[in-house]
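Take one record.
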Amino acid sequence: MLNFIYYPVSAILWVWHKVFGFILGPDNGIAWALSVVFLVFTLRAVLYKPFVKQVRTTRQMQELQPQIKALQKKYSGDRQRQAVEMQKLQKEHGFNPIMGCLPVLAQAPVFIGLFHVLRSFNRTGTGMGQLGMSAEDNLNTPNYVFSATDVQSFLDARLFGAPISAAITTPVAQLQAYVTENVPELPSRLNIILVAAPLMIIASIATHFNSRASVARQSEAAAANPQSAIMNKLALYVFPLGVLVGGPFLPIAILLYWVSNNIWTYGQQHLVFRKIDAEEETKKQEAISRRNDNAPKPGARPNPAKKKGSPAALSATESANESELPEVSLNKADKPAAKPTGSGGGGASSKPKQNRPQSNRGNSPKRNKRR
C-alpha cells in the first residue's frame, strides 16, 4: 500500500550501501550503518530550503502574534469571519503556516519507510506486518530494490557484533534468521544491548538539546502562551524520555537514524539561525543608516523641503515657482497720476500730518499761560 514510500527509501539506502560497500566491503556492518546515516543526510539536504522557510515562518508568526490575538478577540463570536480575516492577514504578509510543518511532515514517511524496509530484511516473525517466512525463504527473497544477495549481505553484517536491524527485545526465534553459512553464530543479546543502549542515550540527550535550542529562540509572548508552554515541556522532557522508553523496541538502524537526524538538526539549526540573525542585523543597520542620512546634522536647521507633502515643503515649492516667473516693470505712463495739492484745487490737502513728539506736550506756551 505504501510502496511509493518503500521503494524510494530502499533505493537511496541501496545506493549508499553500494558506495560504502565498495570501500569497506558489502558485508561490513559499518558500511550498512553509514548507509542509514547518509540516507538521513540525503533527506535533510533535500529538505534544507523548506527548513529555512520553516524558521522564517516561525519568526513571522511570532511577529504577527499581536495582530492574530487582536483578530481573535475582535471576532471571538464569529468563527467564520475570524478565519477569513486570518487568511487575509496571512496573505498580506506572505505567511504560509503549512511551511512551518513541511519538514516534519516530510520526515515522517521516510521514518516509516525505513522502519518497514529494515524489518523486511528479516521476515521470519509472526507479529503485525511480518510474513512468518522460514529462514531459508527469507534469505532467498528480495527486499524491494535489494536483491537476495543484498539480503544475505545485510543478514551477515554485524556492527560490533550486533545485527543493525535487531532490537533489544527481538525474540530468539527471529534472531535465528541472522545465522547463515558465513556467520553461523547466534547474535548475542548482550552485544545488541551494548550497541543499542549508548545510541538510545545519545539520541535522548540530542533530542533534549535540540528542543532546548528551539525553545530558547522563542519570543517572550510565544513562550507565555499556555499551549506553547505545554508543547515546550513535551519537547524538552517527554520526547527525550520516549526515546529511552521506546528504544529497546527499535532496531539499531532506527536508533542510528535518530542519532544522525538529531546531529544534523543541531548543526543545521545553528547555521540557519546564525544566517538569519546576520540578515536581520544587516537590515536593521541599513535602516538606521538611512534614518541617519535623512536626519539633520547637529546644529543645522532641518530642511522642510525634504519632507514631502508637508506644508513647508509645499510653500517652498510655491515660492520656487514664483521666483521663476518673469518680472513685470511699470513705465511712467503706467504709473497713476498724483493728486493735486494746494488750496486752489478745492480738494483736500494730501499733506500728511506730522506727529508731534509727546515730550513737548507738557511744555506748550498755552499751558504755561494757564498756569
